[in-house]
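Reply to dn_fold:

You asked what the input looked like. This is it:
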Amino acid sequence: MRYRICKQIAALALGLAILSSQCACAMTPQEMLGMLKSQQPDSGTETADAPVRPQNPPPDKNTAPDETVQKAAMYSPSASANPPQSTVSAAGQQSLLSLRDRMSFPQTMFGAAYLGYVDTPFEAGSSQWLQALNPAMVLKYPFMAEIDANHIIGNTGHLYCIVPLDPNASLAINRVCWSVRWNEQARREEITETVYRSESGEPVLLFANLDGVAYEDDTLIHVTDSQGNTCQWYPSFDAMSYLVPCTAESGANLCFDFTEYGWRSADPSLAPWLADGYGGPKAIVLGGDPNASPAGEGWIIQTTANDPVPNTDFSLWLYSNSDTNGSFVLYADRKRADGQGFEQVGTWNGTWSIQTVMDGPSDVAFEMSLITSSPYDYPYDTTNAHLPREVHDIYPVLISPSGMELVIGPGVSGSRLPFMSWDGSPCTLMRVE
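and this is what came back:
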């Protein structure tokens, strides 16, 4: 404060000196003082208290040192627009803490996940667009749905979630373009716009690869942690459709990829199970070890009164023939109206084959035929009219971490298995112990 007062006094003295030397000047000392005050910072803001912004990132090795960088509209959140992370829900905060703990390796500086492609601008202030885009990831990481508009960069394109490991890290995001000079062979990077800067390490949702091609670099991310370590990364995909790594000179990958690749093509109705740790089973899990005696695994489910085949016990017995296929028998039984035992509804048999996806639903193809059926002794019972005679379809299948629950999702072609509800929504079968 003393330094600032001294500066004002010195400036006033200089002004008075100039005033005395300019006889034609009509400005009084009081007017001169008022002019000097108007040029000073607001009395409630100290220059030393202004937030230190990250300096412009060093140019790429292919960029000339003396090249002029064009700056467009730059977004830098103010304190009021950058709320503390404690404003999120308890579930959101816990999911963020768990993610940072999961990716806490010595070399990691930030985490990134690919969430999908958005071709229509989303509704501001709503998270429904994100939940519709990738419901499983939002369920697993609820903090994503709580990222406010100040931390969403862009509104269409390929969407990434960026999470600095250090909560106090600085994050700068620039749009770039590439050009080739007539007398040079290498591409040259030019920063066209700085779209985001922050020094408080909040997660952001970033739209990049804006031309729709996920392999084209058009965005540059700079991360600097509180220890001064820094890295830069271009969000894009490699030839195998995985996020390109952020590699240090030592060869270490500085980016923790928490993309759930197996979920990208999964039916949205399976999101709750995917977020709860369910994964794709192998053939030996579905049908048992073909070399064991007795072989086979049994799975049971009971339908409800509103299902096409109501209040019926279904038991599915799967047998593995190899690592990819096997046979099965499906039995359907229902209690008799007089309560004296069960009446057989139907029996199906057929074959199945599996394409295992460990980090997502496995695809299981069922080929089945109805071989026996019996009418109930209920008056006006039309159950048999709803028994599918033939089923030929592929179904997404998940197994619980305990191995005791089997979830079967809707058929790719819309075919309904006998124990499924009218809409073909996912159903859960329990392992026979």
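The helical segments are 2-21, 29-38, 90-102, 128-133, 135-140, 271-275, 283-287.
Hope that clears it up.
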